[in-house]
Protein 1
Amino acid sequence: MGESKMAAVKKAKNKVKRYYEEQDEHQTPGGNVDGTDNQTESPKDVPQLPTEQKSRRKRVKGDLKKSGSNFISGAKDPFPGSVSVPENRLLKYERARKSKLGRKYSPYVQHHLKTQENDVQTALGQAARHDILLPEEEGFLEGDEGQDTCTITQEDIAEMVDITSASKHFNLNLNQFGPYRINYARNGRHLLLAGQRGHLASLEWQSKKLICEMNVMETVNDVKWLHTHTMYAAAQRRWLYIYDSQGVELHCIKKFNDVLRMEFLPYHFLLATCSSTGFLQYLDVSVGKEIAATCVKSGRLNVMCQNPNNAVIHLGHHNGTVSLWSPSMKEPLVKMLCHRGAVRALSVDKTGMYMASSGLDRKLTIFDMRTYRPLTSCLLPLGAGSLCHSQKGLLAAGTGDIVQVYKDTSVSPPRSPYMCLQVKGPIHGLQFCPFEDILGIGHGGGFTSMIVPGAGEANFDAMECNPYETKKQRQEWEVKALLEKIQPELITLDPTQLGEVDAITMEQKHKEKVERLGFDPHEKTPFVPRHKLKGRSSSANLLKRKKKVAHEEQREQIRKSIKVKEKQKEQKKSREGIRSPAEQSALDRFKK
Amino acid sequence: MSEEEDLFVPEYPISASEDEEDSDVERKHQRLLDAISSLDGKKRRKLAERTEASLQVSEFGISSEGAGDKISLSDLIEPIQKSNSFSTVKKQLNNLNQKKSVELPLSKEETQRIQRAAAYQEASEEVEKWDHIVKQNRKADQLVFPLNQEILKPTPIEEKITGWTARTPLEQEIFSILQKNKQPLTDPLLTPVEEASLKAMSLEEAKLRRAELQKARALQSYYEAKARREKKIKSKKFHKVLNRSKQKETLKEFEELKKTNPEAALEELQKLEKARMEERMSLKHQNSGKWAKSKAIMAKYDDDARKAMQEQLQKNKELTRKIEVVSESEGSEEEEIIPDFVNDAQVNLEGPNPWMTGKLSSETKDVAQDVDCKMQSDTEEDNNIKATEKDSDPEEELSEDEVLLKEFEDKRCERREQAKEMCLDSEPGHPSVLDQEKVEAEADETGEEQVSEFNQLFQKLLEQNKSQKKERKKKSGGKTNEPVTEAEEIAVEGPLLVGRLERKQDLEEVSALAGEEWEDEQSTSLMVSTKDDQTKKVSQSGKKKVAKKSEIIDYNKILPVKATRIHTPLLPTTVDDEEDEEQLDDQKMIIKEAFAGDDVVNDFLKEKRSAEQAGKPKDISLVLPGWGEWGGTNLKVSKKKKRKFIIKAPPAPPRKDQRLPNVIINEKRNVMAAAHQVNQLPFPFNNRQHFESSIRAPVGSTWNTQKAFQKLTAPRVVTKQGHIIEPITQDVFQKHTSTKKPAVELNSRKKQGNDSFHKSTSKRKKMSS
């Protein structure tokens, strides 16, 4: 019975198409037009009526809408939608603290949060897509087979490169006023030179145009540009002075005495100084106020650098420790023992992930600042007296009168330097020029500009700092930067801390609220089993029913974790690969 | 009237003429009765009514009051109904009787309530219409007021084209060319040629096609019917034969395919492989099924059953056998592989570690050889079997089976012989082994045993090993009285299965590695360690805590990274001759002297410890000296009291720098920064993570592309300047319905498609079943 029925059904379904049906279909414009249309038009049998044309056009439009393509010809895009961005490029732009949305919200809220998340994701994708607009790539020196790149001299490089680049390698013979400290402005156009015996000079180094030059007739310990090249600070024998680009003294800040080293935090407009009296002081240059003065309590402070990622100041001490400071804390955020001898130089790379430190034990050690663990270490002859990271992560170390530049220091301890250069005197100041493949070296015999291929960032953000800015642009930028100034309290180890909820205060507030109200408004009401009749609400039964729903959250977690474990197992299995039984032997179980 | 009657008719109208006393007695009696009847609880006690004289019926007046005393109309009519006159009156009275009385009008409150309910119903229906729109507006990312604006859209090109005519001579020329070539002018989907070709199918062609289709259909139905019929046949033999023939055919086809189309052949092979895998996964042809078990019981007595079982096993074997793609290189490889892993174990046991085997090496050799021989013979056997199998393939079905059975028996015989030989070889003092052999032999004879070939082999090997071990023990005990170490035992035992342990690293190697370490490192570490010793000596005054700490933290691990030395082409001028070792040593000495005073590491550890201590929550002591005890100077508080009155602080949470000996991380809160943080979850959020995730991405133009920035900062409500925002009207419904319609149609169409799909799948299922 069943079979015959089935056959009947099949017959009905598999109805063979008759030729007239096919014809009919061809006559009617759309295959998917209703039966009613079919009836009305087939008897007329008039070919190509205008109405028919219209209806066909309609269908075409419909098709276009359905397929989402705008081709007139009706062709379909085989790969509809925009091209997806590769995962790793998206990761570059992903922010911390991403979490999945729970299902605890009302539909409206859920919808809004979802759309918001979608917007964020699309923004992220667009940003990743715009990577195309960064066409420049850095390139490094590559020696011939058997040739070490560090044997290539500056003269060789200068010969090979174009004239403008070649002109960037030069020497300034200034042997009168002793070892020089240097500082490049943030956009890399301007250079400050400060001889220890009082010689101060600012120049546009690319055009070799001297802007101002003077002798302050005092020892100058350090010199730093402030936010623009119109002002700079000089740490002189007793006090801190601020000059404008013409060398006119603007301020003499007597609160900052005996300053040895300075760092300028551009986004906070803070000038951090450390003195021989053991004080770390912060000066807000936008308002001219001292923000914080901390006694570090570890003697003379002459090693200092900033972490450009989170604006934390690193100080090196004589007992081999490095301490991290923020103006809002009176104690070091982190203190780490880096060397057995005193710390001689420090530098943190642009990402804020790696810190290089060198000590009296002649070691150069790279630390991971996320875990505070040493990564690599190497021994330099004589040890490094000054260190500097380039924008692309090259590390320059001044040992005696020799500059060594290292590549990929965070990955593996370098066997030999990437580049080397001997200068005419002991090295006193080192800095890579931003957005240029140039390393500036201040030493006893003056100043040397060294070409280091691949050192600088090739793509600059003109909104952020523009090497080619005009006066007007600079002024506008200044106003904007002042408006976007970050408060000094926000200098923390984790720069994204502001995006975090202050959990402790929140809990405290919640506790107070509970005390005030007498009950917890956010607490879940406990599960009360329904009362049932006929002895089904016995205490045992109630307990049982309660148990059924108890610990639901934990259960959910456990379920998830089990799933994850299973997945890992599977992956492991697939990685190991299933060996065929022919290959396996009973002896395999004793293999180790 | 008797008294009893009175009792049962409680409110019998009592005439007033009866004297007071009598009625009083009756009433009392009545009350008593009521009380009694109410005792059993079923009947509620009626409230005793108070009867008054005026209510009672008397000869002088009728009162309408009294229970059940209402006069109904029928009572009045009764006398009339008996007489036939008064028919009209009767009718009227009847009419009166049928008519119901008009109900009382409802009270004002009630009418109002009903009105309100109705009004609410109506209003809610009216409002419900708007629900959808309100929802949509709430969900909308952006609302632009006034709402009903016409959105300007670019018109599609086709619409433009239709209204467009060629004017210039060039255009006209182009159009004429297009027309000549019958290219589409207005609607560019299909050219007339294409359309014509679509249409062109003559009647004959159609008929031909129809006939073809009919034929195909008929054929299909025949085949289906045949298949169904064959499927119903229950004879196993028939199916067996059928399957075999099919297999043969497929084999032939496969051979052909091999020659003609190697790729397809490969695919076929893969299919076979898959079948093999499935077979291996299932227990289909193992002896575990219901049928197989029953047969196993029967096999003792029934030859056929035994055969059937063997056949099944054979089938399993065949199916699970790996299919080899015979290519020369691979074949040779396999040949290499197999003997290797067979022989390796013994070879390894031999040479490299003579100490482990000790004096007994020669004997082990013999045994090993024995085993080796056996293994080889076994492998040979296997090869033989394979060869015979291959040979027997092209033979006929029945003969194939016979051959197989024969082979099995032959093998069994061989095995038996071998076992006997072994028995002879091994010392004749092992009754257990012999017994087992005998049992086995018997089992073989009776054909009871169904253990697979491999299992047997394995068992034998084990037995053999055991016997060997025993021998060893005896011999060693006899010859030398040395205690046999366990290691030796292990080494001796299991010549087949115990793989030799390989040492991956030597001590020497490790030391060599250490030697590579930089000299300086070593010296400094030495320095530190000596200092450690000193400090330990000093601090061994009983402070266990400190000792523990120092145990946990390895001083050498505090600055653990080994420094590599760098070779530079240029050396600083001042240290040109630094390389000289003497000078180096000198320098080291100088440095040591310079830093003799300060032990940097120890200082740091002390600092860390104190920081840890400071960070720990402290116990609260509520001890009051002198309470419950003697007071005075130089008196200590008793332990008991301390235990009682000190509130222990909860253990501190683990520090972040717990596992970093060279780091102190400040655990104090940055209050200044915390002041800027959010400390209350804003409205819709109930979870910290969700809120943090929602604010994680910046919306500013600094971090976003222009487009993304605009989208992220788009206002939720936009109003047009100078436009009156009028309340929403009913036109919106029309809009919504008009936009909705196509969606509905699409859905219905989809549904149809789905239905047909379901039908087809269900049909397929039926077919398969």
Protein 2
Amino acid sequence: MLTVEPAPSASPTPKRPIYESSTQFRNWRFSPEQLSQLRSTLNASAVAVIRNTLENEKPGSSSVVSFLTVEEEHLLVKLYVTKITQLCGLFRFPEEVEATAITYLKRFYLKNTVMDWHPKNVMLTALFLATKTTNNPISLEAYTTHIPKTAPSDVLDLEFLVAQSLGFEFAVWHSHRALWGMILDMQNIPDCPSDTKPIYESALAHVRASRLTDAELVYTPSQIALAALSLAAPEVASQWSLSKSPSEPSSSLLSSETLHAVVETIKSLITSAGHPPHVEAVREVDRRLKLCKNPEKIVGSHAYLAKKAEEEKKAEAKRNKKASETSQAMKDGDPFGNELIKAPIGLVDYDDEDDD
Amino acid sequence: MDAVEKANLERQKRWAKDQKVGEGAYAVVYRGREFATGRKVAIKKIKVGQFKDGLDMSAIREVKYLRELRHQNVIELLDVFSSKTNLNLVLEFLDSDLEMIIKDRSLVFLPADIKSWMAMTFRGLEFCHRNFILHRDLKPNNLLVASDGHLKIADFGLARDFADPGYKMTCQVITRWYRPPELLFGSRYYGSAVDIWSVGTIFAELMLRIPYLPGESDMDQLKTIFRALGTPTEEDWPGHTKLPDYIPVGQFPKTPLRDLFTAASADALNLLNKCLIYEPRKRISAKEALFHPYFTALPYPTHPSKLPKCTTHLSARALEEVDGNVEMNSTGPGVKANNSRLKRKLSSPDEDSKARLIARRLDFTKQTPHS
């Protein structure tokens, strides 16, 4: 998984871009095929679990439920991507917060499905977490009081789950940063328009549109930025990439033909998918989601209570075991217990109840 | 069980907590090991439940940066998992830190030893800066030393990415004695030079064996700095009188570093001087420092395995490390630097002055017990 830094005495290895050592490069890049495979698998296993739960509650009940498809799940997530943008406008959060929260939301749904966790809550948590990971923290109170019908627990209850789903990999490389770099570079390119502001603003709009697509899960931030720049000012974009291409072909870099093809693919992705979903279509999906949500995750439902009771039973058994061990130790005469017996592998009590 | 929960449990099962080695307001540190390999690790369990704003900032910073950084002079974060309401960071296990080594009076440092620690510090720091990360809390206590002698930069609880030009940052960072004058003057725009100043004061401390600039308050810190290095003029440091918290603290003459560091080589003093330049933009960078003649001149840096080692135990360090880094109810960065608890006290003023005298006559010609 990790590359080991060569010892100082080892022969010099070819220089790799910093980006390639990032968790984003290593763990969060997929081919479009991998993405759809991943989502189908998640969807199928969620449906199987929920069907099973429903059948346990009431045999035959799952046959009337129409579960969400992969596309419908995706549509709902996309809607909540646009909600993040709205909230960031309300709070006047910096661009980095918005972009990071959107990335978190998308990554979350590569590990979970909307039938288990509704994107409304996940979105709130992802955004709150992003304010902290980008060093723009606000208090939970200030956050929730400005969002209608939201209690602090709505945000915090999912924080661990979201952080876990992200693999605690909080650092995100963004294409709007790459774009800004290109705009700065343009100042050194001869024959470039002296006023780069209109180009920047138009390209930035395309970068923002790209956040509604899967682009960032497939392509590098600089590829997306170049595509956005190319949509805004094709001539300038090709001048920029010409100025960056090495005089000699290098094996580690994309050839200009490949790069061109990649950029064109991203451009058509942004143009075709980079707009908010139709609210009516999403409303229909959301209505159906109410019927096919995993009942174990709905507070107060029969299945939820059953699951809680099961967990409580386990915890109770554990406490009893502990108590009887203690009283046994008291009986044996030493209130502090006997000498520690090394726990066999795999039988360790991880909960550390003593020091929580 | 959800796939995500399952994955977390799998991670959790890889590690065994063996023994509590320290407890603070915000975390408990255990010594542990990896089941499969027996490899020793440190597990830092952060109690999250008690923070009203959820995962706290210093835990988030630490996880965020250590997840990205892999370098032999930066502490390695091996894994992260949660257990109930706790966040567990599995870190590589390191025996001691530079503060313990500096304080261990039974150890004698050769110039080559100091050079070795400095080289490792600069290598780790250059890597952080190359990744656009400011550490913002460098001090001997955060430079951990492995049993094989390798030094690793630790505690990224105050770290952050470089800000864009024009973007404000807090000046309430870096433990006071290691804090550069621009932060003491309230500068909200700064860069990697703040860490370099800290490394400079650590370099001096390695030579003196006592903290070089131990101010008693933020105000006194400025005085202590100027007393040692002379009050900066407008020419030394253009514009510093315009900084937000600028305050004149008196005129002190410049005295050559040589007066205090009598045994140091010219190269060493030249590098030290470049780390402690008032004008942050003129201060040496970590990369430039690695190319400084000091590192290529004789004596060559001691091999890590041959460096002086501490005989004391880890528990004391672990306790201090986890101690009150964070204010329970704040969301802002933990203002570690202002915390008087973190000041290191020498046992008596008497001993203090004695130590100073000894330091002034640092004699590098002594034979070392370990060589």
